Amino acid sequence: MNHLLKLLDLTGDEIIHILDTGDRLKAEQKAGKKHDFPAGKTLAMIFAKNSTRTRVSFETGIFQLGGQGIFLSNADSQLGRGEPIQDTARVLSRYCDGIMIRTFDQSEPEDLAKYGSVPVINGLTDFAHPCQVLADLMTIREHRGRLAGLKIGYIGDGNNMANSVIAGGLKCGMDVTAACPSGYHPDKAVLDFAASVTNARFELTDDPKAAARGADVIFTDVWASMGMESEIAQRQKAFRGYCVDDGIMALANHGCMVQHCLPAHRGEEITEKVFEEHAQEIFDEAENRLHAQKAVMYLLMR
Ligand code: CP
Ligand code: NVA
Prior knowledge:
Layout: H1 12-30, E1 42-47, H2 53-64, E2 68-73, H3 85-95, E3 98-102, H4 107-115, E4 120-122, H5 130-144, E5 151-155, H6 160-171, E6 175-179, H7 188-196, E7 202-205, H8 208-212, E8 217-220, H9 232-238, H10 246-251, E9 257-260, H11 272-277, H12 279-301
Parallel strand pairs: 1-2, 1-3, 3-4, 5-6, 5-8, 6-7, 8-9
Helix pairs in contact: 1-5, 1-12, 2-12, 3-4, 5-6, 5-12, 6-7
The structure holds phosphoric acid mono(formamide)ester and norvaline.
């Protein structure tokens, strides 16, 4: 593994190795132990979209590894004035030991990796949110002791989260049913991958109840992702019936977890009641962004 651009690029074993490393780094940090990582590494962090968790967890994570994060927003870097990604890649590679990017088009992290000479980490694009789903898989494994054989029910938009949950879940031997309304399906590359996995138990449906039935983990996410805010009225109509509520949870297995990458829109994709009943798991998930991303940096940047 040279970069983390999307989970589709990784094998199941590589994902499990990241999760094992994340568990180890988490235990070391909780025990106040120093991590075995060379001091003085720097991570450039490019943000073309808003962030709370991704920025704070990466900046804290590289600091805890003995290095330094450098925040670059589109607005105040030359990227915002049109400097090409190919040149940005080559410049940042001369200064930094890694580049994290949050942006719109998946081609941007892919091009940073192509033209730069340091590891590139995708901190969210319209296509994928691999760091989030690594944290989610880490959280599920912590709570349930295993991944293989558990059923994920994803309910909502076929967005970056859906794409990454399907790819990551199937690669770890989980069953995945995704309920997405027509017109809001996951990406074709992800559906093609799902269709290609032998023995995969994957289903795409427009029935949220089918996703919930027998689920061990229910995932949901906002109906209008960053950059799609102007479509909210139309999306609220399309996603009617896709709210994770008591009726949905009643169909799931006993002890079913809920995962939400946050920020959440209570009363849209999830009720306040379900959210608060599962807050422990959801905030464990948020915490694990730190540990999973430290694992990614540990494996890529040493
Ligand atoms: N879940 C997530 O990526 O959060 P931020 O948008 O706050 O980074
Ligand atoms: N799907 C959401 C995830 C936010 C972390 C978005 O892209 O805005």
